[in-house]
Structure formats: C-alpha cells, structure tokens
Amino acid sequence: MKSDGLIVVGNDDESEWKIASNLRRDLIRVPIGELSGSFRVTGKVGRAIRKGEYKMLIGLPGMSLLPRDQRRAMEKDRPKPEEMDMYLEGPARLIDVLAIYR
User: Fold this and answer.
1) What pLDDT is recorded for position 61?
2) pLDDT tens figures, 53-69
3) Taking Cα atoms as reference points, which of 44, 56, 53 lies closest to residue 2?
C-alpha cells in the first residue's frame, strides 16, 4: 500500500477477517486519537489476501523493481517476528474507504 496517508487496520468481530485501508489525512474530520473503537465501514474491495498469506502494509522503495513471482513469494512466506507489525496477515481485504460511521 502507498503510505501517503494513515494506514488503518480493522477486525471483524464476527469472523477472522481483517480490513486495511490507506486514509488520506486531509479527509479525516476527527482527531486521529478518536479512530479507535467500533465502526461501520463502507468501501470498495480492492484486493483479498488469503489465509496464510501476508501483505506488506507500507510499500518499500524498489519493491516494484523485483520480478512479480519474487514479490508474490515474499508475501506467502511468514515474516520474521520483529517484522510482523509491518505486514497484514490474511484472511483480509484491502479496501478503498468511502465512509466510516460510528
């Protein structure tokens, strides 16, 4: 994901699915500290991440220069424990948020 905004990750209380999105800071109308708790999110699904796969939350410079099969292999391998906070573990959906309701 591009990191030009605020990356948020949410959990579904009724399943093991997670959602993640990159929110533009100029469109957030509440203090960032208030973005915790339960919310209803409306958005468009961009990509699904299967169970057991990983997606790096922040795009690193030069990642696009690697061959596609090498990038996909990196996402299937379990990251090191110290790198886990940089990855989203599937099952998850990357979404483009349209609205967040409390």
Assistant:
1) 56
2) 888 887 655 666 778 88
3) 56
